Amino acid sequence: MPQSLSQILLHVVFSTKNRQALIATDIQAPLHAYLAGTCRALGSQAYRVGGTDNHVHIACTLPRTLTVSKLMEEIKKSSSAWIKEKDKNCQNFSWQASYGAFSLGQSQLPRLLQYIDNQHEHHHKQSFEEELLKLLQAYQLDYDEQYLWD
Fold it and tell me: How far is CA 8 from CA 39, 77, 103, in A?
């Protein structure tokens, strides 16, 4: 095969440091658009970005030339600087150090997009902490809750 090809779909989720409600409603849509643009600039197709005042979900592809950790580092670093520039009340803004990255198949993508689109409704009933624990269980990941939150 003369060409290297890949199609790796990811569901990525991460929160603000200490899950603080720092993402104001009026900046959420521009932030989500910025995150999608950052994904594209890194060679990742962003299918959907969404979230609430304290976390984001991204449905995207993993670029053939990047690791998940490098993709996350670049997305978080760039968007953190962007938020500080756009909202003067967020000069101390930072994302949590960790993230969750889950693989999925193409047939699961429509359901994930709907899930991301319904984040505000979803979080009227469930906290981010509860959501993340359910995701970890659904993806059958072993974890130590002592190291899960920062």
Answer: 14, 23, 7
CA atoms within 13 A on the CB side of 133: 10
Rounded-to-integer distance, Cα 28 and Cα 106, Å:
27
Please, what's the b/e burial string for 60-74 (b: 16 or more CB within 10 A of its CB; e: otherwise)? Answer: bbbbeeeeeeebbeb
Q: What is the pLDDT of residue 23?
A: 94
Tokens 């520039």: give the residue: 85
Dihedral sign computed on CA atoms, order 141, 145, 149, 150: negative
The tens digit of pLDDT for each residue in 87-132 reads 888 888 999 999 999 999 999 999 999 999 989 887 888 888 888 8
The domain locations on the chain are 9-140
- Give the pLDDT confidence score for residue 1 in this predicted structure: 54
Class of domain 9-140: alpha beta
Type of residue found at 68: V
Once rounded to an integer, what is the mean pLDDT over residues 11-36?
95
Phi-psi category of 65—alpha, beta or left, where left has phi over 0 and alpha has psi -120 to 50?
A: alpha
DSSP state of 95: B
